[in-house]
Amino acid sequence: MEMNKVKFSERFLWVSVTLSLLGLVFFLSIEKVKAISSDGEKYLQILHEVVAYIENDFVEPQEEKKIYIGAIQGALHSLGDPHTRFIDVDEFKELQNETKGSFGGIGVELNYQENAFVIVAPIEGTPAWKAGLLPQDKIIEINGKPVKSLSQAESFAMMRGEVGTSISMKIERKGLKEPFVVNLVRELIQIRFLRSFYLPEKETGYIKLVQFMGKDTGKEFAAAVKNLKDSGAKKLVIDLRMNPGGLLDLAIDLADLFLPPNSDIVSVKGRGGVLIKSFKSENRDLKFLDLPVAILVNGGSASASEILAGALKDNKRALIVGTQSFGKGSVQSIIPLSFGAGVAITIQKYYTPSGISIHGIGITPDHVINPVSANEDEKYALEKLFKKNLIRPFLESHSEFNEISITDFKEILKKENLKISDSVIRIFLFNEMRMGSSQSKPRLDLDIQLSEAINLLK
To answer: Smallest Cα–Cα separation from 21: which of 337, 322, 302, 378?
Structure first.
């Protein structure tokens, strides 16, 4: 197979959302199409006959292009892989121009499946994150139009917009009976990929990695670990929650920091389990082999996050704490087709050092710790407060998270005859009052997963 250009890294499509392919992406030349079998010729003839009957006899006139695109999409859908998909002409142009700068967006990583965009993770500090969108939320309408009635390119165009303009989306969420609408204001998505804090009371270093992106992130990460150790850190927590992935090379580089030379990091296998490439740690000067490490993951941790977590887990170099990760560990080829269209086909999968495929499974934590979250009655209570427009005025008059704010919020609940547990109140107010800031130091009293991760490290 001849390739014009091979990029052994993940490519990201920055449309009005920050849409990640979350896999290795290859741009291939158009190859000579394989000769069609006799069965293939038979069913192509049947397809043409069906299209002719639709065009001539179906009760409503249909556009021929729409029928054939539906047939192509149906063929790809039959594979049962949401990442193998048809790319129409407009979307393929967007994909080819993906590196041409930043513009207004909402900051969320998406997969397209079952006629809806499924959120992999909102990116911290962006409008989607501030609005409380969660992994596995489904976007079913954009500005009042059902996603299932739109092409992906049309959906992208609707989500694209100038900074400061608004977008309305209807969301389906597991556990909620009715979809709900969120209204977001597009922002210029400028991401600070990494931040670190020293927690002296626990002699622990904490690094939050938002995405595996940025040309200097590897150097910044290594420098952050060194600075934390110099400050007195005797253990390290790497927070990959809501990190949807990024560059494969960066995930390998970070894993290398904590592994002795010649340790397995990740392998890539193709059809029939044939090994394509295996990555191992190298012999280099800067290593942190004696520093105890815990990695935090959740349902928004995908792809490169899972590669790093899997590598350190299987090499018994880190404890994995949190909840099951997303399970995105496949490689897509983006192949140009005739007339400016394209197709994304899954051709390879990632495997952890122990030989486990990440794809569709994810990384299982060594210690499953669920975060404090609102139950159904508490979610109803918060929805009621939002609908009665009681939250925003409260936040405008209470700018700091403190005991006074907590007491005043409880008074509102009492007047409305609503009940919410103290722990949920504290987490809700803290998240609302930081207003999307990614600069706040982690709070051990509000983050049970982080607190438990620290306690588990020896």
So the answer is: 302
Residues 245 and 323 both lie in one domain: yes
Handedness of CA 199, 204, 208, 209 (dihedral sign): positive
Report residue 404: phi and psi, to 5°: -65, -45
- Residue where a domain terminates, one of 318, 336, 371: 371
- Identify the pLDDT of residue 2: 32
Inter-axis angle of helices 304-314 and 248-256, nearest 10: 30
Q: Per residue in 18-35, is it b (16+ CB within 10 Å) or e — as a string?
A: bbbbbbbbbbbeeeeeee
What are the φ and ψ backbone dihedral angles of 205, each rounded to 5 degrees? -95, 145
- Lookup: tokens for 403: 């005991």
Single-letter residue type at 370: N
Residue 169 · residue 182 · CB < 8 Å: yes
Q: Report pLDDT for 1.
A: 33
Listing DSSP states for 412-431 in one string gives HHHHTT----HHHHHHHHHH
Q: What share of the chain is helix, strand, coil (3-state, %, to 5)?
A: 35, 25, 40
Q: Which of 31, 15, 19 is nearest to 333 (CA)?
A: 31
Q: Which helix (H) or strand (E) holds 267?
A: strand 264-269
Q: Do 312 and 397 sit in the same domain of this protein?
A: no
Residues 161, 104 contacting (CB under 8 angstroms): yes
Rounded to whole angstroms, how far apart are CA atoms 119 and 138? 6
Structure-block tokens of residue 352:
């952890």
Q: φ, ψ for residue 12 (rounded to 5)? A: -120, 135
Rounded distance between C-alpha atoms, residue 246 and residue 266, angstroms = 15
The catalytic residue positions are: 303, 314, 328
What dihedral do alpha carbons 6, 69, 171, 10 form, nearest 10°? Answer: 0
Asked if residue 31 belongs to a domain, the reply is no
Instruction: Tell me how far apart the terminal alpha carbons of the chain are, to the nearest angstrom.
Output: 50
Domain interval for residue 404: 376-454
CA distance 81 to 66: 22
Is residue 196 within 8 Å of 224, Cβ to Cβ? yes
Residue 212 structure tokens: 């595996």
pLDDT at 10: 33
Q: What is the CATH number of the domain that holds 363?
A: 3.90.226.10
Q: Can you list the alpha helix ranges (DSSP code H) found in 300-361?
A: 304-314
Residues of the chain with pLDDT under 70: 1-35, 94-104, 113-114, 151-153, 190, 434-440
> Rounded CA gap, 152 and 197, in Å?
40
